[in-house]
Amino acid sequence: MADNEKNKRSLSKKLRNKYRLVILNDDTFEEKLSLRLSRLNVFVVTGLSAVLLIALTTIIIAFTPLREYIPGYSSTTLRRQAMANSMQVDSLERKLAQNEQYIRIINGIISGNMPEYEINLPSDGVIPAESLDTEVSSQDSMLREEIAREEMYSVSGTGREDAVESFVFFPPVKGIVNDVFDAQKRHFGVDVLASENEPILSVLDGTVVFASWTTEAGYVVCVQHSDNLFSVYAHNSALLKKTGDRVRAGEAVSVIGNSGHQTSGPHLHFELWYNGTAVNPTKYISF
User: Fold this and answer.
1) Angle, to 10 degrees, between the axis of helix 2-16 and the axis of helix 39-63?
2) Tens-place pLDDT, residues 173-230
3) CA quadruple 256, 258, 259, 264: dihedral positive or negative?
4) Domain 140-283 architecture
């Protein structure tokens, strides 16, 4: 035990022993620099210097562009280019999918066989109302107010309907018209009977401005076309487009259904508006 304590005191004494480091001129032996050092001081200074060097190197690598010269680190320019390429590839994939869908529809029109759309519906073809999200968002409210203002316009404008004849409309669906246009009864469209789950097509190129659920008309799609033309497709069983989508003439926007309170069977309620005035679709479209 005494030997251990003696060794510890000896080691402590050795660490604290002072030494002098002298730098002399080799020719004149003139003293240029003199330092008093101990082993403990040398160990402390060496350790702190190593820690400081490691910390400084880490900071330089982590927070300066010098890390780009270290193998394994990618450059900022390369990462930005990779992100830009990824976004461009995603855009091209979506554009390619749209073009493929458009080509399928055109081929179907030419051959007389419209492509089938996979719609996930219940076995009875009815979607329960309690499973739907009927909460109205601020965007929906603004769109509904805009449509409501459209309905406030007069429907008796006679001169406006003549300009509609210059358009070539694509039939939204082939079927039997069982309820005609009647502005006096505030029935501003036609009801067309067709096979259940048959796709409904856009009559012209345009932009979907409303695609959602309403209590009276069920699933509704509204498309804004050029020259102040506006088309409405109501009582759908499912929607194939969302608000903001661009559609082509003959492109499927929804599926025939029986949704909403104001319906008694699968059919399409179709309305056509021009300059805020409802017009009779049967004058311009052969169903």
Assistant:
1) 70
2) 998 898 899 988 888 999 999 888 889 999 999 999 999 888 888 899 999 998 889 9
3) positive
4) Distorted Sandwich (2.70)
AA identity, residue 156: S
pTM for this entry:
0.46
Report CA Rg, the chain: 40
Q: Which amino acid is at 285?
A: I
Closest CA to 245 of 231, 265, 224: 224
List, as one string, the DSSP characters of 205-236.
SEEEEEEEEETTTEEEEEEE-STTEEEEEEEE
Residue 93 CA: distances (Å) to CA of 18, 85, 115, 261: 76, 12, 21, 40
Indicate the Cα dihedral angle 23, 26, 27, 32, nearest 10°.
-10
Classify residue 255 as exposed, middle or buried by CB count within 10 Å of its CB (0-12, 13-18, 19+).
Answer: buried
Instruction: Report the alpha-carbon distance of residue 126 to residue 259 in Å, rounded.
Output: 8
Residue 123 has a pLDDT of: 45
The structural domains of the chain, with segments of one domain joined by +, span: 2-69, 140-283
What are the counts of helices (DSSP H) followed by strands (DSSP E) for the chain?
Answer: 5, 12
